[in-house]
Amino acid sequence: MDSSLYLPFYAILKFNASLLFIETWLEFMFKVDERIESSCVLLHHDVLSDVYLKNAREYPWLILVPRVVGVRELDELNDEAQLQLWNELNFWSLSLKKIYQPDKINVGALGNVVSMLHVHIIARFHQDPLWPQGLWQAALETYPYEERELLTV
User: Fold this and answer.
1) pLDDT > 90: what percent of the chain?
2) pTM
3) Where are the alpha helices (DSSP H) in 30-136?
């Protein structure tokens, strides 16, 4: 039998092994920001994301951190990773709903302080101390636009 027939299969296996090595290496290189690690407890390793529980008992609060090196924005994930992240967000949101029965689930990817991509899922209740404000708006003092400024916005 002609051994050259096996060459494409060998090349495919070698290529796939290289991809596996690269994925493993990138996952090894991945490091969660210390501000997340120091304020949270690692709860679970999902398919794409590490799932953290915010160490703040007044708010049931999860943070999903996709294990993708160098990604800062949702649109920087490839289509497959975006779909996987969406599925994980849906699963964990439904889990918070089932366990805590909140009035509202807040989901957000802000990244102003911690620039690596991470998504917050927070169970909110009408009786929580900051309701109806967002948790990030608690200390925010707002200033309305002047009428002339509104014309240029």
Assistant:
1) 44
2) 0.73
3) 34-39, 79-100
